[in-house]
Write the structure tokens for this entry.
Amino acid sequence: MSTVGDHIDLAEPHMRENLAMAGLDVEYIRATGNTMYFLDENGQEVPVIDYAGGYGALILGHNNPEITAHAVALLNAQIPILAQFSRHTAAIGTAAKLNEIIQRELGDDEPYYAVFANTGAEAIEAALKHAELNRAAKVSALTGEISAAVEAARAAVAAGEASLPAGFQQFDDLAQHVAQHNAELLVRPPLFLALEGSFHGKLVSSVQLTHNEEFRTPFAALAAQAVFVPFNQPGALTKIIEQGRASLLGLVVDGGAVQIVERDFPVFGAFLVEPIQGEGGINEVSAEFAAEIRQACEAIGCPIVVDEIQSGMGRTGAFLASSLIGLRGDYYTLAKSLGGGLAKVSVLLVRESCYRKEFELIHSSTFAKDGFSSAVALRVLDLLEADDGRVYRLVEERGGRLKAMLQSLAAEFPDVVKDVRGKGLMLGLELHDQSDSQAALLRDFARAHILGYVISGYLLRRHRVRTFPTASAANTLRFAPSVELTDGEIAQLESGLRGLCSILRDQDEQALFA
Ligand code: PMP
């Protein structure tokens, strides 16, 4: 058992041991903008440039002064933070502002209703539940129609107006055949569609839509399953939908004969898509693939949940990354930067045409829609939109500068850097795999999928730069700084990465672990 000061560490101590092993066990005592500080042995603050950016939750930086001042004013004004079952003006304002922004980006005026939650995974779970309500309503309408048609056929046969299909002597046998087929299908849980490499959270249902097997499979028995669609692969989705198709049986009376007919069963609950995968290694959905997703989902009436938890809130130079590839969602999830780095808040947006008002009563959370985080979220949206979208333009410009630096390193070290990906300030640098390295430590750590964290430790200790690999792509370092990124901060990262690339090129493992 590890200890911290006088205390035995009972707060996930094994995680801390791993951090210590990688040289990441640092206590930060202050943070502002893109800089975090820890204390050295002499009690002096040591600045670290933060490219991890709260896993993408800090588009406006650590302790943004305007957001902090607003939060302090809210607390000083003693606003009611928990006032369930009352009128929530800040949440109403946030929902209105979100609609204004999204309608502008989508060029469409259909409203989206907002369901508030606390974390990203929770917003995803709300989306799954909401989509399931709609699917269940469709199933119920279908079974109602089928029952009515069976009774109509029964009456027609009894009146001698219609004959039975071949193979059936009694109407009851036919009705039994239909009922049995349908009963087997009706107990099937929905299937959700998600992309290979996806990350949609780690709660009971959302983790089943997260592709990483290590996170997902231990809990597979707990929730509905996903079918994972190959990323950006034309034709793959149509094939999966075709293979998954199932039909309920119904009856019709046509020309004096009862016929068995097939009715499409809504097998798929929803398609979840991150326009740019974050944890999967910064992978961008192409505009062509987005169009294919929309078309395929529309054809079977399957709603699309666009997960903008990491890519949204201006991170890619637009409020919604999906707007840049023309992907229109029936649902959107937002979290992370929505809370301005201070509040824990997420939101599920549901297009009016699929919204179910009963959801508001059957889904809730004590802390959702609270007065503090809703008011912070509203201020964050105002800041993003200020000066005619200065933040979006700056993200594009700063992101362009950062990406150009990463690309020049890739050109300089082609044997070390495999790829540079991403948009705006959501960028990834993929390193070549070291699993077959001649250097024993590099090889062993790579095979154990922890080399990325050891690299993070090196960048932190040697270069005072904080970045981590993405959760499900161990060779990809992620860069998600705030919009106030300076040229000096880019230069500091460049020198750190140049040091790293030289070490990997020379296979100088001693330098990495020194
Ligand atoms: N979806 C995406 C795209 C994410 O990046 C994340 C978090 N990395 C989540 C969902 C889950 O959010 P949270 O960690 O707040 O539950």
